[in-house]
Amino acid sequence: MVHFVGSCDVCQRQKANNTTSSKLLQPPIPTKVWSDISMDFIDGLSMSYGKWVILVVVDRSSKFIHFLALSHPYTALSVAQIFMDQVFKIHRIAPNHCQ
């Protein structure tokens, strides 16, 4: 029976869809520039000036982007240090950060 239903063209076209479609994400809209940022890593690049990784920091309001080069292996401390030196020092970012 399982083989028949699995190979029956009519049965496959009439099969009910058991999955529900997911809703679109609607993140909150930032009210101030640099009040809400997202960060991500671009890894697996070829080495350039001794750096292998790019940390991407994006302001969700203005879409302004910082690209920060990192060496391998990077640590939480090294990422925090370059973030503080290159982004926070310039923009004095508020506490809402999403990944």
UniProtKB/TrEMBL annotation:
<dbReference type="InterPro" id="IPR012337">
    <property type="entry name" value="RNaseH-like_sf"/>
</dbReference>
<protein>
    <recommendedName>
        <fullName>Integrase</fullName>
    </recommendedName>
</protein>
<dbReference type="InterPro" id="IPR036397">
    <property type="entry name" value="RNaseH_sf"/>
</dbReference>
